[in-house]
């Protein structure tokens, strides 16, 4: 099967219902070995339940492939499959890599040294001060900063990176033509035009709660390590940190006031082995050991 035909086939498969990302990855492997495998055999080999098999086949058959390909082209949304040379190598190594990534902006940023920087949506002035202190030095040391374009610390990381003429990558949990939270609309547009915006979800996909833990594994998977600025005990930032740990990546955390609820998560990470960060050198020295 020609690579371009296979790319379109992967696009088609990824748009279907009833299939988990791990099963989708199996389907891609099956298609490589047997390009003419029937949908029924594909579902059986990938281990879909009877219910999901029907859901998958029905959605595959009614999916308007040419229309959707044209829509993404018109919206200037590109896409990478896991088989493309430009697909990020670190992300390919994780347990559950997305088989397709949609993008807008400078794809070449994926070749840089990447550090994920995440934190609480609600945060203290201390968290703001930490971001403003660390980001300029991280930029000076040629690290491209990855975050999730969420309200709070993520938003601030992207903004400060741009202010200091650095490079940043935003990974979002919606289609690239959707804005969540809406207050980040102008920032998202700027990143899509001058930096790099990524999602595993196609155009038109609205925010759903389940999308954001999945988004977090990409944030962690892209990078050499993950820095958590502030986090409550139960926080999406901790999910990102756990994803990094699961993949053997370095986790960094900012220590905080023991009476500050936004520091409970970061202090706990440090107690359980995360690198305690008080200066940028704490990050640089550990990343140099990993590379």
TrEMBL record:
Residues 80-287 form the Smf/DprA SLOG domain. The lineage of its organism: Bacteria, Bacillati, Bacillota, Bacilli, Lactobacillales. Belongs to the DprA/Smf family. Pfam families: DNA_processg_A (PF02481). It comes from the Bacteria. NCBIfam families: dprA. This is DNA processing protein. It comes from Pisciglobus halotolerans. One of its GO terms (biological process) is DNA-mediated transformation. SUPFAM superfamilies: MCP/YpsA-like. InterPro entries: DprA, DrpA_SLOG.
